[in-house]
Design brief:
Layout (H helix, E strand, L loop, with lengths): L1 H15 L1 E3 L2 E3 L1 H4 L2 E3 L3 E9 L8 E9 L2 E7 L10 E4 L4 E4 L1 E6 L2 E6 L2 E6 L3 H8 L2 E6 L5 H12 L7 E4 L22 H11 L3 E4 L5 H13 L3 E4 L6 H6 L4 E3 L19 H10 L5 H12 L3 E4 L1 H4 L18 H14 L4 H19 L3 E4 L13 H13 L3 H8 L1 H6 L17 E4 L13 E6 L2 E4 H8 L7
Parallel strand pairs: 4-7, 4-8, 9-12, 12-13, 14-15, 15-16, 16-17, 17-18
Antiparallel strand pairs: 1-2, 3-21, 4-5, 5-6, 8-19, 10-11, 19-20, 20-21
This protein binds zinc ion.
Zinc ion binds next to loops.
Length: 474
């Protein structure tokens, strides 16, 4: 009976599937697709193209199937006959966001700790609704599930961004039960190979690994052309750089380089936090570290969204409290009410990090973005990806810089910049149409209308509406 039912359901799904621009979507995904024409022209629109160039007013963009066929001043490029015309007057187009510290899990609060809970169904589509067309999961508590979600998205059976899936956090003993993955004399090389064989394309290391672990992980990963990133603590940035790491998570917030008399291979989070609060923004040691990272071509992932909750502004940065299941919303609101305006150290750390990132970037440092929906449980997929653009402006970046850091920089790191990351003729049509002038008010980033992924236009509003009150139930 069961087999018959499954067969029946499978055939219904198959019949109802629909091809759009060469991609197949099941009805559950198709319901979110607003624009499915094979020729689309967005006219009279403002473009911020992701290269860092100034915004251009009154532009036309033509999409043919999954590619950007042409971009130019309105009226100067040919609009093919039969094109679906979208009037972009008063609107803005940016490239699809490319975010490198995302997770498919959420930090569900529990008595001062948190439990990493996989958000298999809500998070992938929320990322897409938040403008993300490509994401890296920087660490995974269910790497198999992440790989399967990626596969389902590719096949049009789930809505979500293109994914670069990382290993589980490679970690020794720490304080988060879901995270340790390396025990005793177990081989770190075997772990890298095991996950690379399954299709993982990035490696993430965590707080308590040793220098020996990192050296072996980097060697094994690089042998397979896979990059390694780390949220470090036991290992300093300088040590990790010398061991060949590619990317450091959380800007300078995870640097243990400034702990006086630091013990090697030992993570002391309190000392780390204190040393960073004490660190003068203009200290020569900090500047030397920045220069060293730049010289060694290290990329920093800036994740202000995971720290902002400790400054107690919006309950859910980016305005996503409507997405939360009522039980979770009440819990989060209660925690917020208890803490609001009580964490001045959190505010100081947040400001100092902004200053350091701006300085690193000005010196020529490579910065990419990621939201990291963990921490206080108040950073959630999609909404935080929009919020991060506002935070880049607060950090002191110009709007074109903010967009470039959140798009092209991520594409370059992932080696996909020849295909995506900017609005340019010939590139894949990964772009976001925003209902408002982003230059006039950056908070218009919250008014995303259509997120085009490979030329297929998903309705941001429809997706966000579909998860209302559901986050935490899946
Ligand atoms: Zn993380």
């Amino acid at each position: 009976m069961r087999t018959l039912k499954t067969l029946f359901l499978a055939s219904v799904v198959l019949i109802a599937s629909n091809k759009i621009n060469g991609q197949t979507f099941i009805p559950a995904v198709k319901q979110f697709i607003e624009i499915q024409d094979s020729i689309v022209a967005i006219t009279h629109v403002k473009i911020i193209d992701g290269t860092g160039a100034a915004a251009m007013n009154n532009q036309d963009i033509v999409l043919v199937k999954n590619r950007i066929q042409s971009v130019g001043a309105s009226g100067k490029i040919a609009i093919p006959a039969g094109a679906k015309i979208i009037d972009g007057s008063g609107k803005t187009v940016i490239p699809g966001l490319i975010m490198l510290h995302e997770h498919l899990f959420y930090a569900k609060p529990f008595e001062g700790d948190y439990k990493a809970v996989h958000m298999t169904y809500t998070f992938p589509k929320m990322y897409l609704a938040g403008g993300v067309t490509t994401m890296r999961t920087a660490g995974s508590i269910e790497a198999n599930a992440d790989l399967n979600v990626k596969n389902l998205i590719t096949k049009g059976r789930m809505a979500g961004p293109k994914m670069d899936v990382s290993t589980p956090h490679i970690e020794r003993e720490g304080f988060i039960p879901q995270v340790q993955s390396l025990y005793g004399n177990e081989s770190p090389e075997r772990m890298v190979d095991y996950w690379a064989d399954k299709g993982v394309t990035s490696v993430k290391v965590y707080n308590n690994i040793t220098r020996d672990d990192l050296a072996r992980i980097v060697k094994a990963a690089h042998a397979r052309h896979i990059k390694v990133t780390g949220h470090l603590c036991s290992i300093t940035y300088r040590e990790a750089t010398d061991l060949g790491i590619d990317n450091l998570e959380h800007g300078f917030m995870a640097s243990s380089d400034f702990i006086p008399n630091k013990q090697v291979d030992v993570c002391d989070r309190a000392a780390q936090a204190q040393s960073l609060l004490k660190l003068d923004d203009n200290s020569p040691e900090l500047r030397q570290l920045m220069q060293y990272l730049i010289q060694k071509n290290i990329t920093l992932t800036y994740t202000p969204t995971v720290f902002e909750p400790y400054t107690n502004r919006e309950v859910i940065p980016g305005g996503g409290i409507v997405a939360m299941a009522p039980f979770l919303r009440d819990q989060i609101q209660a925690i917020y009410d208890q803490q609001v305006n009580k964490d001045s150290l959190g505010q100081l750390a947040f400001k100092k990090e902004m200053h350091r990132i701006k300085q690193f970037y000005s010196m020529g440092g490579k910065v990419v973005m990621g939201t990291d929906p963990t921490g206080a449980g108040r950073t959630i997929a999609g909404y935080s990806n929009q919020r991060i653009i506002e935070l880049l402006i607060e950090t002191g970046f110009t709007l074109p810089e903010a967009i470039k850091i959140s798009t092209l920089n991520g594409a370059k790191y992932l080696n996909i910049a020849n295909e995506t990351g900017t609005i340019e003729k010939g590139k894949i049509a990964d772009l976001v149409l925003i209902d408002g002038d982003l230059e006039k008010d950056v908070s218009n980033i919250r008014k995303m209308e259509i997120v085009f992924k490979e030329g297929v236009g998903f309705s941001s509003k429809k997706i966000f509406a579909s998860v209302k009150g559901k986050l935490g139930l899946d």
